Amino acid sequence: xxxxxxxxxxxxxxxxxxxxxxxxxxxxxxxxxxxxxxxxxxxxxxxxxxxxxxxxxxxxxxxxxxxxxxxxxxxxxxxxxxxxxxxxxxxxxxxxxxxxxxxxxxxxxxxxxxxxxxxxxxxxxxxxxxxxxxxxxxxxxxxxxxxxxxxxxxxxxxxxxxxxxxxxxxxxxxxxxxxxx
Length: 181
What we know:
Structural class: mainly alpha
Order of helices and strands: HHHHH
Number of domains: 1
Strand content: under 5%
C-alpha cells in the first residue's frame, strides 16, 4: 500500500501527538509516585507516617479506579464519536485534572482529582495506538506503535529525573526564600 506525501505527514503528526500524549501519561504516573509523599506532608502535616502511607495507597488506588473507568468509557466513545476526539479529549481531561491537582488542600479533593486524572490517562494510549494502527500499512505499523511506546518509557525516565532534581531545587529555593513550593 503506497501512501501519499500528505498521508505520510498526517501519520507522522498523529504519531507525534500520540507519542507525546503517552510520554505525559507515564510521566504523570511516575511523578505522582515521586511527589505523593511530600504532597501528603503538606495536606496532612500532623498525620502519622502509617496514615500517610495508607492515604498514598488510597490515592493511587483511586487513580487506578479512574483508569479502569476511563478505559471502558474512552473505548466506547472512540467507537461512537471517533478516536481522534477521544485522543484529544483524554489529553485535555488529564491535563486539566493535573492542573487542578496542584491546588488540592484535602484528601477527599485529592482523591476525586486523581480519579478524574485516571479517567483521562486511560483514553490516550488506546486511541493513539488504534489510530496509528488503522492509518499505517500493515508492514509499517509496528514502527509507529514502537515510537509511541518508546516515548512513554522516556516519560518515566524524565519524571524520575525531574522528581529527584526538582525536590532538591524546591528545597534550595525554600531555604533561600522561605516559600514552600
